[in-house]
Amino acid sequence: IDTISPLVESYLNRELSLKFDPPITFKFIAVDFDASTYADSMIKADTMDFLYSYTGRLGCVEAEFGWPPLVTQRAYINGLSTGAQGGIMYSLLSNTAIQNLTDLKGKRIGVGVVLSTNSYHLGFQLLNQHGINLYTDIAQLIFYGNEYNDQVRDIQQGKIDVGMTASSWLYHPNDISTFRVLNAQHINFEAEQFPFLTSTDLAPQFGISVSPTVPLEVKEAVADALLRINRSNPEAVKMSIAGFESPVSFFKVRNMLQYMGLLEVSMDGLSGGKCTQAFEDLLHTIVCPDGYVRQSEEVMEHQ
């Protein structure tokens, strides 16, 4: 919250407020933290104009509410800039029992955030494509949230066998030479070389989507202002980004969400979609395969 709010309340107001008559004001609101600020409710009530969020979230609001992407963020990591993100699966180099993705059956796997594109969704899809279901084919699935240092520590201590996190994570602050990266590859995204090793396919970085009700001149002005941001702007430095670029399609992201059962698309394929993940209730983002039943919240809390 502290990193993104200056972009809205300082930069956009400074650049754009007085260019309109009457002047407009940009206000930052943190969403999805309590019942009064769920993004879905605010979108339906038309009380929000722009949404900055992670890829899966933006893919959902585009499919369900018709909010198109306005700009895509370019991350700035270890001096490298990219508009893409990927997921990396890794184990200790000394763990010779794990050489390939097919060795993960019956193993203990640590992932990141249940709603994360790079630390969960992309890896889930990749393993399914290799015949491994994260809910049925492994010994234990552990969600670390954003505590990726704890995930690395548990691999080093032998508490889990494999970790799944953002492709850039092992470059800082951990030494990648002590780990084996599974399905390691250097690939391109939108005709640009992705600067990190990745195990998975790539998806767009965080971005900003816009309500269809926002006037065209305001959309264009906001997009132009965001595209002018670079590392010389204090707001970019605070966010650890290189800037923004023209929006990247969420087509592959929507396909991934649909593949995982998190997005239901109408039979005619024309009337949008419905995200089944309830962002106010993370337990219900877990979609069990046929023949399995999700445990109650009380049981989950005591596992």
Structure description:
By secondary structure, the chain is of the alpha+beta class. The protein is 27% helix and 21% strand. The protein has 9 helices and 15 strands. The strands form 4 sheets. Strands 4, 5, 6, 7, 8 and 11 form a 6-stranded mixed beta sheet that branches. Strands 1, 2, 3, 12 and 13 form a 5-stranded antiparallel beta sheet that branches. A two-stranded antiparallel ribbon has the order 9-10. The radius of gyration is 20 Å and the shape is globular. The model is unreliable at 277-281 (pLDDT under 50).
Properties at a glance:
single chain, 303 residues, 6-stranded mixed β-sheet, globular
Shape: globular
For the termini, the CA-CA separation is: 31 Å
Q: Which sequence of SSEs, written as H and E, runs from N to C? A: HHEHEEEEHEHEEEEEEHHEHEEH
What kind of oligomer do you see?
A: single chain
Q: Count the strands?
A: 15
Number of helices: 9
The main β sheet shows up as: 6 strands, mixed
Low-confidence stretches: 277-281
Binned strand content: 15-25%
From the helix content, strand content and strand pairing, which structural class follows?
alpha+beta
Radius of gyration from CA coordinates? 20 Å
Averaged pLDDT, please? 86
The helix content is 25-40%
Please summarize what this structure is.
27% of the residues lie in helices and 21% in strands.
Write the layout of secondary structure elements.
Blueprint: H1 5-16, H2 39-44, E1 50-53, H3 55-65, E2 69-77, E3 80-82, E4 84-92, E5 108-111, H4 117-129, E6 140-143, H5 148-156, E7 162-166, E8 179-182, E9 188-189, E10 192-193, E11 202-204, E12 207-210, H6 216-227, H7 234-239, E13 241-245, H8 251-259, E14 263-265, E15 273-275, H9 297-301
Parallel strand pairs: 5-6, 5-7
Antiparallel strand pairs: 1-12, 2-3, 2-12, 2-13, 4-7, 4-8, 4-11, 9-10, 14-15
